[in-house]
Amino acid sequence: MIFSRKNAGKWVASKNGRAVETARKLETLLKKVTKREDQSSLRFDKIPPKAFAGTLYGV
Question: Model pTM?
Fold first, then answer.
């Protein structure tokens, strides 16, 4: 699950709902995933730094 406390405030590259790489800045994340063969199928999301809409992380 990409919406977890350890990913709070970070950019996450995910595939099939699983976090593949994480980084604080988008540029750093893009550098990390440039060598992957499945780069075109990755999703990039910015995870909020705090809980949102009354939900808890890791639920």
Answer: 0.75
